[in-house]
Amino acid sequence: MDERYLSQIAVKEIFPDGQRKIESAAIVVIGMGGTGTVIAETLVRMGIGKVVIVDDDTVELTNLARQALYEEKDVGKKKVDVAAGALRSINSGVEIIPIPERLTSQNARSILSLGDVIMDATDNYDARGIMNRVCFELRKPWVFCAVEGTFGYVKAIIPGETSCLSCFGYPEFGSGVACTVQGVIAPAVRAVSSLAVSTALRLLIGGRDDGDLVYIDVWKNVMDSIPIPRNPECRVCGRK
Hints:
Blueprint: H1 6-9, H2 15-23, E1 26-30, H3 34-46, E2 50-54, H4 79-90, E3 95-99, H5 108-112, E4 117-120, H6 125-138, E5 142-148, E6 151-157, H7 179-182, H8 186-205, E7 213-217, E8 222-226
Parallel strand pairs: 1-2, 1-4, 2-3, 4-5
Antiparallel strand pairs: 5-6, 6-7, 7-8
Helix pairs in contact: 3-4, 3-8
């Protein structure tokens, strides 16, 4: 076991058994924007065995204020290519698989099948709707993650155990609103991304998660947990 992980192995919630699970796990990160780059970087630094990064976009100047892994020289380049190079330089022991595609109904099953846990780092309802449906079909746990302005949300979704996005009426279709329009600050991105990673680690190591929607506002110093019960009539995870 690599000595670089000694500090996290010393944490009682992880210990050597947990680290071994981390190092043998595969995680798929959908979207390599603000949350996606922070999530991927944190996972790689912690030694996740395989990280699959998915995005079809290129780096823009407006991305640099909040999106880790990118620099001015990267503007115009494919995000997954730049991110993959940066992640490999951080930890050569982690397998990085870049997929320069947008998640669609056509490729979702093949992409999401690659991970033990799926991380939502998207900015649109369409992708989340696809993840919600396909992860339920594949019985893959996934972590919903959204940021706007100074606040954001994180929720674990475990098929057959917790509520899903459709249980509380989250939109299944739509493009969402661009960050340059709705606004977002880097501290909110990093706080929400950190919560998302810790949630994923609990799922990997075997910790319990009740699927509450966790809300955090870094400007108001507020954090809360909102219970989201399963809807027995949900058209995704409920009775058909």
